[in-house]
Amino acid sequence: GDSVTQMEGPVTLSEEAFLTINCTYTATGYPSLFWYVQYPGEGLQLLLKATKADDKGSNKGFEATYRKETTSFHLEKGSVQVSDSAVYFCALSDRSNDYKLSFGAGTTVTVRA
Amino acid sequence: DVKVTQSSRYLVKRTGEKVFLECVQDMDHENMFWYRQDPGLGLRLIYFSYDVKMKEKGDIPEGYSVSREKKERFSLILESASTNQTSMYLCASSSRYGYTFGSGTRLTVV
Questions:
Q1: At CA B60, angle to CA B27 and CA A39, rounded to 5?
Q2: Per the CB < 8 Å rule, is B42 touching A44?
Q3: Which of A45, A49, A100 lies closest to B48 in CB terms?
Q4: pLDDT digit string (tens) for B9-32?
């Protein structure tokens, strides 16, 4: 079945540092890929998505590229801020699974001033 | 602003109690979902529903049931709460345009 593996945390960074969170997936079909973010005390919000190979999703300075050849969707941001402290989830949805979302374990990111 | 509203932010219940977690969406979405979120495990799907009075088991349905009598409301029921059901519960609804999540209910079973 479908599964998502993402980099374990927690990750602690200083402001303006470069952030990468690795995500790889296994899917029987041709999935859509997502990054969700959960700020403290809140629900999940969609951060960015990509629906086909080589698509790049971007939002709020974050980027991720759908790499079919490596089955990866790594999240990157060039210069993080304290306000980026959150839990980040990689996820996929696939027609073979009726488009239900399958999530990775989540990566907690803390950015220090 | 479209919303998924979960009735309680925090709940503390005793072992053996029957617990109801309520979720209401105002987007006229057909699809609704209940997940539980645990550290290191991500979000795991408990139950979902694609229509009124319809329900399907997710990956971890044991110990839970659901009810969907109206399109906008999807309830998660713990028939006899146990301590291993202490968790954060997230409700979501979806359309072809994507998912919207509620803020979550943190349930503690003592």
A1: 50
A2: no
A3: A100
A4: 999 999 999 999 999 999 999 999
Q: Name the helix (H) or strand (E) containing B31.
A: strand B31-38
pLDDT in tens, A28-40: 888 999 999 999 8
Beta carbons within 10 angstroms of residue B9's beta carbon: 10
Cross-strand partners of B70: B73
Residue B9 is given by DSSP the state S
Which residues from A are below 8 Å from B38, CB to CB?
none
Q: Please choose, from the candidates A12, A44, A49, the residue with its C-alpha nearest in 3D space to the C-alpha of residue A34.
A: A49
CA distance A19 to A6: 14
DSSP A85: -
